């Protein structure tokens, strides 16, 4: 099958990574060993063609469910128990901090969709709740993956009706941010602003302060490398998905953000290398990656790959169309052999489709300036 893209998609370009860079980093990542229970699969699991209506296979995407909020849990429960019985949904992390809410949410989704795929987000791995005693966040991750296995939620690459679906484990690192910092205002430190530094627990050798976590989580993907290669050889269309952000251009510039240090805690260069190793350095008309974490609705093409974020986000954020949504979620990204039209309106990716990115400009946006003038 050949994928169609709508010509009006927003596009941006930067210097493509060269093959030597890609090979070097993949070699580095392969040296990392992990204890995560992602299963070894010698060949990709190929699910049989089911009896579908004239629309064919449909794939929906959703991130940042945060069902510890009662409003968000009610929203999940409101999803039809009938209309999605033959559909797939990709959950790009941050389901719930509380384990019981995670299990309930994934159970509800599995009752509604034929296939549910999942990758973990940072909130999923928080270990700060009384009554939930984990040695560390890796132990909690294993418990979540065990729950997924019992529920029939997929966390490994798979082929469904000829479509390749590849979950990608990831974590962020501060050096992902290469754009000019905002100065002249008092901005909270990462440790103060980001709860991950306190709510996550890591064994020795792993830290949010360097690239160790990014490398560790990316190395989990090595366990499925042979499966991915076979999917690449047999599927003309592939969707990859992660929780974290693979490119800084998929986040607004610092001068626009209420927390200008946000780009330091959102993404991973290793993730983008991994994505390009699957979809190709130049991308293609059959390349799509879904992500989450920042809660900004996004739909743009960068160097031949379509990047999409469709977050439920926090209840207070859904009042603004640029952050999360209700009525239009989950977003149908793929239907009947073709990728869906562009997600619209999509505030910030719409903005960057018409305006160049100017990270050298550190003059605060008016709404950000007003915020810092009041503090």
How is this structure best summarized?
This protein is of the alpha/beta class. It has helices at 19-29, 70-78, 99-112, 137-151, 190-193, 196-199, 212-220, 225-234, 269-279, 347-354, 366-373; strands at 11-12, 45-47, 58-62, 88-91, 115-118, 158-160, 163-167, 237-241, 287-291, 298-302, 305-309, 331-335, 338-339.
Question: How would you describe this structure to a colleague?
Answer:
The relative contact order is 0.19. The chain is of the alpha/beta class. It has helices spanning 19-29, 70-78, 99-112, 137-151, 190-193, 196-199, 212-220, 225-234, 269-279, 347-354, 366-373, and strands at 11-12, 45-47, 58-62, 88-91, 115-118, 158-160, 163-167, 237-241, 287-291, 298-302, 305-309, 331-335, 338-339. Helix content is 27%, strand content 14%. The protein contains eleven helices and 13 strands. The protein has an eight-stranded mixed sheet with strand order 1-10-11-9-8-7-6-2. It has a five-stranded mixed sheet with strand order 5-4-3-12-13, with helices on one face. The radius of gyration is 20 Å and the shape is globular.
Keyphrases for this structure?
375 residues, 11 helices, eight-stranded mixed sheet, alpha/beta, 14% strand, five-stranded mixed sheet
